[in-house]
UniProtKB/TrEMBL annotation:
Keywords on record: Lipid metabolism, Methyltransferase, S-adenosyl-L-methionine, Transferase
InterPro entries, A to Z: CFA/CMAS (IPR050723), CMAS (IPR003333), SAM-dependent_MTases_sf (IPR029063)
Similarity-based family: Belongs to the CFA/CMAS family.
GO molecular function: methyltransferase activity
Lineage, opening ranks: Bacteria, Bacillati, Actinomycetota, Actinomycetes, Bifidobacteriales
Active site: 396
Taxonomic source organism: Bifidobacterium avesanii
Coiled-coil region(s): none
A GO biological-process term: methylation
Protein's name according to its UniProt entry: Methyltransferase domain-containing protein
Amino acid sequence: MANGKSMTVGEMVALFLAPDTPLRVDAFDGSHFGPQTARLHVRVTSSRAIYQLLAHPNEIGVVRAYVLGDIDVDGISYANPYPVLRGLFSLARYVRRPSAVDAARLVAAVLSHGWRTPDVPQTEGPSKFARIKRGLLPHSERADSETVSFHYDMSNEFYADFLGPSMTYTCAVFEDESMSLEDAQANKLRLILDKLGLKPGERLLDIGCGWGSMVVTAARRGIRALGVTLSKEQAEWANEWIRREGLQDLAEVRVQDYREVPEHDFDGICSIGMMEHVGVKNYQSYFEEMFRLLKPMGRLLNHQITISHDKPDGRPGQDEFLDRYIFPDGDLGAPGFIESCIHDAGFNVVHQENLRQHYALTLHHWCENLDAHWADAVRQVGFERAKVWGLYMAACALNFELDGIQIHQFLAVKPDRVGHPDGKWYPLRPWWRA
């Protein structure tokens, strides 16, 4: 880009970063920014990246350019880009806002070459507006079925590449940082069942049961466990697992919306990593449904990702990248709001804890697993989608570490309004091993 109106890519970058920024940018037009000795070397490989960022000057523009290879980083692991993300985050103090005149110069320089509509990665899903235009109102049963399928019905083998043998797609609970992922996932399942305090023969409903790890673990204890999911691939995997273990008399997984479960009077309900799909506006009705399905003195264990602070405008905690590429219609609520919804549904909330650091550790293990099985992951879902998932998990690990998001377990009891002075309702203090 070298005419009267033109500006090199290096000059464009200099509008947004201080001159002493420890970052090297090498561009397709032969221009550069920053010292050759910088630890991070970003390459802008194509003019398409400029049009992406001009069309979407937010995370969507960056993600599209990265996924399509128009922006790259020397030495990056596509399965585990966490070190690069951590390094880029450290540069935040060098970022500056260009003046209105400089911004206009940049736009004019790009448009002097004509406008080119940038490509969209094949892995990107439709926008929220496009889904609504098709009649998929957020969190209607039809919309939930399609969005869950978008996220989960890719390839069970792909998920196995990074989840490992437990096929447990939620935060593990570590006794210390040296604990293996498998042991930490088993520890999480043990903790939840211990909190629920279910005995052999009692009934558990697992809402959003995934590939069945909780259902199988509960059945091994003699608990009668029903799991529901909207993913056909998950249900097939889970029921095959149940058959292999000979637990058909105790365990079952169905493709069924939680709002359609005909049974009731469960002794316990767990919702592990499910609420991210429910929608903040539906939290109250969700917990009211849990209250209806439980018997008096039954227990609810809700385990979900939360945002650290309510957004000032009341919008849910979701960004466009997650909505387009990972969790369509997903959103997050703050822990105080969630606890209020559980309480207002009629429950007694008896315990809650924040496992934020545990999810960061879990995600680091998943990224390491994805890196170790990268070739198979690409075979299962393609290079672009595998690349998206490496970015997603690494970014989430960083976000948990920075306390942008958290994860909470809430334990609640459905009271019977009679009172139990003999202590048979539940013990005076936590009864489980932490």
